[in-house]
Each structure stands twice: as structure tokens, then as C-alpha cells.
Specification:
It contains 14 helices and 15 strands. It is α/β, with parallel strands linked by helices. The chain has two domains: 2-230 and 302-342, Luciferase-like domain (TIM Barrel); 233-301.
Length: 345
């Protein structure tokens, strides 16, 4: 199993890239470092900054929101970062986001999300492979553009940057998107993953893998959940510190009828808590929503406690058939402990 370092770049009202932590992870043998984006800062620019100050650690987006830029620009940006980093260092993590952000922030339609993902992946690969002028006649996205207000002067073009076919990993939670991910991508970034979920999830992934004809199979398909790791002698304080962020995402990050974080909590065995948190959060009762987050939900999705407790609980993660664990938590001693447990140094 490989290790990744998941970054939380937002510090108050600003942005901070923890270069020393990233360098520590690289020295410890971590395979990748992961950025994210929301409505304020993007995921790609920090990777270019990180690339200039590291040597080998892979540069991953966890995730790029596909409606934030055209598929062609997604392909161009990630190919540019890979070229600047020396090649063979980029993982293109893609995700849908949700209708509140897609329509409310990016001004793009939410319609046909699965088809938009399929078209985005296909277009990116055509850009990188340079088999000819790039054309794509998709269900949701077509290039050249030929829809309303088109001039009919669009010309198929071929990328002037020569690059390799970059790996694409997709964030997905529901069964249909999980199967689509296994069908069209190189890896899967799960939401709310717990080790005991893998048998059921594997069935969904195998549905998509069975549709492939390119040699990708279970043994070569990547599976990369995020796991919060926090060394502490005070579990109560650690859980309480984690609850406000969870309450915000489960309660308010998305429309009441389409909140993927809420759905993820329900899928992993906490439907009543998910509903209650959302009800309280949307009613403006944020403290009560925070208090409604179950300790068991936090504990099951992370590694908290003393080094001995984390070592004991790591076995379930190490044996559940994931290929990369994206560690969230910047304690130097926690990064060292996980490097030892995973055997990467």
C-alpha cells in the first residue's frame, strides 16, 4: 500500500502550503501529495508551487471540479504541471461537485453529470495522446462546439505540448458513479470509506471493470481513500475538534435534496444522524448540528488515539485491499508512524 498526503490549504481567510510537511512526507517515502479546490482557490496552482520545491513525490488533485474549466483546459493545466515537474508525476483527480456549486458558482448546468464525466475523461485523453486533431462528439460535451450561438468556424486542433497519457482517478460515492469510475478511469477516490465497505464496493467496481477492453483489472486499478490520522491521548477532544467541519459538510454543503456528503454518511450506516445534522444545520442550529455528529462516525473513518491504538486499528485498513491511503493530518510523528505501519520507508 502506498501513502499520500492530503492537504488542507485554507488557513482562516488565507491560503498556506505546508512545504516543510510535504518535504517530510517525501523523505519518508510517501508516494503522492493531494490538493483540493472549492469556491475560492483552485487545486492546480498549488501543485505547480509544490513541484518546484520537491523532487519525486507525485502531484495529485483531490479533486478538480470538472465544471470549473473545460475538459481541454483541465488536460492542458495538468499536462503543464507534469511537464514543469519533470514528467510522470501527476495524478488527475476529478469530481463532479454538486448543483449548488456547479450552477451557483461556476455558472454551468448540472444536467447529465455522468455523461459530462465520461466526456471529460475522453477529451482529456484525446488531448494528451495527440492521435490527430482533437474532436469529440459526446452526449454532454462536443468539441468543436456546435451548439447555440456557434459561429461554425471552430477548427479541431492538436496539442502543441507533447505529453504522456496521465492517470485519471475519479471521486465517486453512489453505485452508478463508482461503476462508471471503474469503467473509464485509472483509479477511484471514495467518499466516506470504511474498511468493511470494500466487499460491497468491489462488486460495484467489478461491474465497471468488466466493461473495459484495455487490460485494466482489479490488480491494476487504484483505490485511494482519505484517512484522518491524529495521535492523541484525549479522544474526546479530538472527536469534538473534528465535528464542526463534518457538520458543515453533512448539513450544509449542497442542496437539501442533493448533498453528497450527507448521502455518504447515510450510506456508511448513519442515516438518522445524517438527516438530523442537516435538519439542525439548515435551521441555523450549528452547535446542535455539531453535537449530533456521532463519535462512531468519526472513529470509523480515521485513525485516532495513542500510537498503540492506531497501530491496532491500522490492520483493518492495511488488509482491506486499498492501494493508497491518503493521510490527512500534519503531525510529524503521525506521518512517521504511518510510514512505518505501511512499510514505505
Amino acid at each position: 500500500m502506498k501513502l499520500g498526503l492530503g492537504l488542507d490549504l485554507w488557513a482562516g481567510k488565507g491560503l498556506r502550503v505546508p512545504i516543510e510537511t510535504i518535504r517530510q512526507a517525501e523523505a519518508l517515502g510517501y508516494d503522492s501529495v493531494w490538493t483540493a479546490e472549492a469556491y475560492g482557490s483552485d487545486a492546480v496552482t498549488p501543485l505547480a508551487y509544490i513541484a518546484a520545491q520537491t523532487e519525486r513525490i507525485r502531484l495529485a488533485t483531490g479533486i478538480i471540479q470538472i465544471s470549473a474549466r473545460t475538459p481541454t483546459m483541465t488536460a492542458m493545466q495538468m499536462a503543464t504541471v507534469d511537464a514543469l515537474a519533470g514528467g510522470d508525476r501527476v495524478i488527475v483527480g476529478l469530481g463532479l461537485s454538486g448543483p449548488q456549486v456547479v450552477e451557483g458558482w461556476y455558472g454551468q448546468p448540472w444536467a447529465q453529470p455522468a455523461s459530462r464525466m465520461r466526456d471529460t475523461v475522453a477529451i482529456c485523453r484525446k488531448v494528451w495522446r495527440r492521435d490527430g486533431p482533437m474532436e469529440h462528439d459526446g452526449r454532454a460535451i462536443s468539441v468543436p462546439y456546435s451548439g447555440p450561438a456557434a459561429t461554425d468556424m471552430g477548427k479541431p486542433l492538436r496539442s502543441i505540448l507533447h505529453t504522456q497519457d496521465l492517470p485519471i482517478w475519479i471521486a465517486a460515492g453512489g453505485p452508478q458513479m463508482v461503476a462508471l469510475t471503474a469503467e473509464i478511469a485509472d483509479g477511484w477516490i471514495p467518499m466516506g470509506f470504511r474498511p468493511d465497505m470494500m466487499p460491497a464496493i468491489r462488486d460495484q467496481l467489478e461491474v465497471g471493470l468488466a466493461r473495459r477492453h484495455d487490460g485494466v483489472e482489479w490488480s491494476t486499478f487504484e483505490r485511494a481513500p482519505s484517512v484522518t490520522v491524529h495521535i492523541t491521548d484525549d479522544l474526546r477532544a479530538a472527536f469534538d475538534a473534528a465535528k464542526p467541519r463534518i457538520a458543515m459538510y453533512v448539513g450544509g454543503m449542497g442542496h437539501p435534496s442533493m448533498n453528497f456528503h450527507n448521502q455518504s454518511m447515510a450510506r456508511v450506516g448513519f442515516p438518522d444522524a445524517a438527516a438530523r445534522i442537516q435538519e439542525l444545520f439548515l435551521a441555523g442550529k450549528r452547535d446542535e448540528a455539531t453535537a449530533a455528529v456521532p463519535d462512531e462516525f468519526i472513529d470509523g473513518g480515521g485513525l485516532y488515539g495513542s500510537p498503540a491504538r492506531i497501530r491496532e486499528r491500522f490492520d483493518a485498513w492495511g488488509s482491506c485491499d486499498i492501494t493508497t491511503m491518503v493521510v490527512r493530518g500534519h503531525q510529524p510523528e503521525a506521518l512517521e508512524l504511518l510510514a512505518d505501519l505501511a512499510g514505505v520507508r
